[in-house]
Amino acid sequence: MITVVDYGVGNIGAITNMAEYLGIDARPSGDPKEIESAAKLILPGVGAFDKAMATLRNRKLVDPLNHAVRERRVPVLGICLGMQLLARSSEEGSETGLGWINADVKRIRLPATSSLKVPHIGWLEIRPRRESALFDRSNRRERFYFDHSYFVDCDDPNDVTAVIDYGEELCCAVSSNNVSGVQFHPEKSHRFGMRVLEAFGKLR
């Protein structure tokens, strides 16, 4: 069973609905004890980095999350802002992130002459960088739905599992041991998103 962390900052209904469609048992919970003892976790997120981290701390969920992910080593998937929370810090604010990935979150910066916009909202093809539990490098032309102004900048290139081209090459998915994250919204990405969520559901 997947526990979807419910801390009031996320697209939880759409995630659990997609999981149910795929036959995956995924249930939202904001109970620290349930999160601490979870078999598998999804950390969603929509909005601002500082508000999300402050909310996790105010609801006393950081220690249970750390126990599950760092000590018990359960699989965790961060989605959109949830992926950014896996990092140490963000240029969006001053709060300290969870630090499960050796990375920092940076704002997308485009040349003044660029026709692209920030925030980036819409569909983009991803390019898998390496084989991982969520991505198969043989699968090309997979398109996902994004809505973001920031991206995760990893210290170790080996932690980057997929990238997008948006003015420059940007990380859009990470993986390190039991920790994974995707900048896009699987729950809004139709069959491509279903495949990612189904792959996470099969992790042990």
How would you sum up this structure, described in words?
There is one protein chain. With 204 residues, this protein is of the alpha/beta class. 25% of the residues lie in helices and 30% in strands. The protein has six helices and 13 strands. The protein has helices spanning 12-21, 32-36, 49-58, 62-71, 81-84, 190-201, and strands at 2-5, 26-29, 41-43, 76-79, 89-90, 103-107, 120-125, 127-128, 143-148, 150-154, 160-166, 168-176, 179-182. The strands form three sheets. It has an eight-stranded mixed sheet with strand order 2-1-3-4-13-12-11-8. A three-stranded mixed sheet has the order 5-6-10, with no helix packed on it. The longest helix has 12 residues, at 190-201. The mean pLDDT is 95.
Question: SSE layout and pairings?
Answer:
Elements: E1 2-5, H1 12-21, E2 26-29, H2 32-36, E3 41-43, H3 49-58, H4 62-71, E4 76-79, H5 81-84, E5 89-90, E6 103-107, E7 120-125, E8 127-128, E9 143-148, E10 150-154, E11 160-166, E12 168-176, E13 179-182, H6 190-201
Low-pLDDT regions: none
**Biggest beta-sheet profile:** 8 strands, mixed
Query: What overall form do the CA principal axes indicate?
Result: globular
SSE topology string:
EHEHEHHEHEEEEEEEEEH
Return Rg in Å. 16 Å
Number of helices: 6
Q: What class do helices, strands and sheet pairing give?
A: alpha/beta
Order of strands in the sheet with the most strands? 2-1-3-4-13-12-11-8
Overall number of strands: 13
Helix content class = 25-40%
Mean pLDDT: 95
C-alpha termini separation: 11 Å
